[in-house]
What we know:
Blueprint: E1 3-4, E2 7-9, E3 12-14, E4 22-25, E5 32-36, H1 41-58, H2 63-79, H3 81-92, H4 96-113, H5 116-119, E6 124-129, E7 132-140, E8 143-147, H6 155-166, E9 170-174, H7 181-192, E10 200-202, H8 207-215, E11 219-225, H9 228-240, E12 244-248, E13 253-257, H10 263-275, E14 285-291, H11 298-305, H12 326-341, E15 345-348, E16 367-370, H13 377-380, E17 387-393, H14 396-405, E18 408-409, E19 411-415, H15 419-428, E20 433-436, E21 452-453, E22 456-457, H16 464-470, E23 472-480
Parallel strand pairs: 1-5, 8-9, 8-11, 9-10, 11-12, 13-14, 13-19, 14-17, 16-17, 19-20
Antiparallel strand pairs: 2-3, 4-5, 6-7, 7-23, 12-22, 15-16, 18-21
The protein binds nicotinamide-adenine-dinucleotide.
Amino acid sequence: MSKVIPQLIDGEWRVSADAEPIEIRDPATQEVIALAPSATAEEIELAVASAQRAFQTWREAPVPERARLMLRYQHLLKEHHDELGELLARDTGKTLADAKGDVWRGIEVVEHAANIASLLMGETLENVARDIDTASWVQPLGVCAGITPFNFPAMIPLWMFPLAIACGNSFILKPSEQDPLTPNRLAELFLEAGAPRNILQVLHGGREVVDALLVHPQIRALSFVGSVAVAQHVYRIGTQHLKRVQAFAGAKNHLVVLPDANKEQVLSNLIGASCGAAGQRCMAISAALFVGESRQWIPELAARMAELRPGHWQDASAAYGPLISPQARQRVQRLIAAGKAEGAECLLDGSDCSVADFPDGNWVGPTLFRGVTSQMSLYREEIFGPVLICLEVDTLADAIELINANPYGNGTSLFTRSGGAARHFQHAVEVGQVGINVPIPVPLPFFSFTGWRGSFYGDLHAYGKQAVRFYSETKTVTTRWFEDDASSDPNLTIHLK
Ligand code: NAD
């Protein structure tokens, strides 16, 4: 019998009444490891009403009390780091080291949330007019919700609910229906850390649950991370229903190689950044732009990539795991076939990949193309697999022009020894997260995760100071105290000074 995944509603773990649960499968074997029934309309209502009640109490909790909850939670997550890593590896197929990295990146956000007091401080100014002072206070919004993707089932939920709750809100999490085991465990540990039982609700399911949250009048703010089409849908419908929405979407991240860069560093960073996590990272490098003579390194890149071997998460020598589902694998295989049909040169083809003892896994071997142009589907679509495409350009200016013409703007990187070239690149490139000799420049939580253009819809980004602004309101109070016997005439005009 497979484990049935409950939801967290009004402080209780309850199995949904839904009669057609989603099957959660091990991506290396297709074995059904759990069943996740989706939230019914009635359960969604219960969760939102409970979150609304929780907010009325929690908003009054002193800020240090909220910070201490995050300290305890951070401590518990660290104590359970190995267990969470194994659960996440089983659920997603990621290698154990990578799965533990996913958890660790989330723990760092909880650490950031533990510093909430300084992040919530407003501004004050004395004597904005004679005897008048102004102060701004930062207050919580209400019920917030988060919809997360399959590829980081620990890190991305932890981008959201700890900061929202530290700001004084209540939160409804709707994790990906493809790997809900880790988010449920994160919620269990949050309760164990002493969180008020109904401050976090966890609902399962897919599109229908998301659509109900998007239009629910009591939800004030929505955080979304996922694919482009769904991000656009969430942003459109959520804002149409007058909610605050931040929607993080897909990507096409370029790494530019200048001929003066260190070849060894370029090749190993390109391989790690394109094939790590089977390429299923929104900040994965999927396009390498070789400038000038650096194109001579492509054959050596192919030889080194060919040595990579995917495998099961318990195999410590595996470079990366399977894709999340057979559908994801078929999609990547389709794009590889399209690349060949459209005339790109396939130097390494991983579409027919097998792993001993795991004949049913969603395996794709390392794949490398050269001769790719910006018109090909390999370049236009996000592949989300261990596939790297190489484009060749003459100058750094050509590389920047190509990147800026791409609709996405999540991450990019330049490898060079030239400070001048790096300075020009970081200034001119229209991408939100830039690495100089750093292939995947994901900012730590005291900064914000700042995708641009087609990779993000909204204004305020994830974590850092921006998330605190996203999950709160600013109230500005202007104060004057009269002397007891002072009198004044009615004032009918705006003061000019
Ligand atoms: P997805 O869009 O399929 O799913 C994301 C969430 O949306 C899930 O919770 C899912 O249940 C829900 N959903 C799916 N289809 C829906 C629909 N039609 N209507 C309403 N809700 C729907 O994304 P995924 O495959 O889980 O994740 C991979 C994608 O996420 C990639 O495109 C990747 O680039 C992107 N991603 C982006 C970032 C970022 O920070 N920009 C980070 C991680 C992942």
